[in-house]
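Dear colleague,

Following up on yesterday's call, I've attached the two folding results inline so they're easy to grep. Please treat them as preliminary; we haven't cross-checked anything against experimental data yet. The first protein's sequence and structure tokens come first.
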Amino acid sequence: MRRLDSGLTFVEILMAVVVLSVLLVPLVTLMTTGFRDTQATIDEVQGANLAGELVEQLDALPFSALPPEGPASGVTLSTQSGSLADGAETVPGSGFRFHLSALPPTFSRELSVRRVGSTRREAVVTIRWTLNGFPRALTMKRVLVKDAILPTM
């Protein structure tokens, strides 16, 4: 009588597991890196949108209603003090209000205005957040001009 040996040996199974591991580890690493980079991009786009929202509202204000010059006069608006976090901050001395989107938990928003000559002010909007424990920031600057008249064609 002849005995047929069929099936896999332990060594063959072990080699198959090693080969699969060598092939799958880079694939899993690539996916993890992709997810992390996607989240970083989402946060950067969200930061740009939050900064753009505030800059657009500054553009809509009359020049006389712009916040006076920044940090030295105490007019820097910041979510650290809660002023730009609630979504409806009154512009100091003007009666105008910013209506802003709520910030995600790890984000903060800051506005600083400084005088650049007699007819211009520079507004600097800074958005800060943390991603995987690392601080990130995005800054958007806009020069606002008093009574700017665009040439007509």
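Below is the second protein, in the same order (sequence, then structure):
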Amino acid sequence: MQQLAHVFEGRFKEQKSPESIWTPVPDEAVPKPRPGGCAVQGSRYSSSNSLPDEVLNFVKTHPLMDETVPLLGHRPWVVKTMGRYQLTTMVVDTEAGPHKNRTVLFLGSTRGTILKFLIIYSGDSVSHGSVFLEEVEGFNPEK
């Protein structure tokens, strides 16, 4: 989780035009408050709805971070070959199962579909994988 947090605290990427390559955003071009943090009760902005338009527009136009999150085990945990989804949300339950010793990954899509995977990790950072458990239609975004 520390590596993940480090990447999200890093530099954003931007593409100046559709034909240009993605380049790092200079720190001075990132609006304040810095996008990526949570709006919490008691802070200046208690909801993301109250953030300045400059911050919200920056988030919409800068969806990528400059660094990548390193792979744990040197290969992907989940590979889906059918690209029917644009994934937008990831939730990990590290205490799943009757003995709270399983890790389950939930991936949400723009179409309202939720994909559920059981993550299999042996601890040696080489032997790992996943088992696709189910696909659930959470909601229909067209309704």
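For the second protein, one point worth flagging: The longest strand covers residues 87-96.

Best wishes,
A.L.
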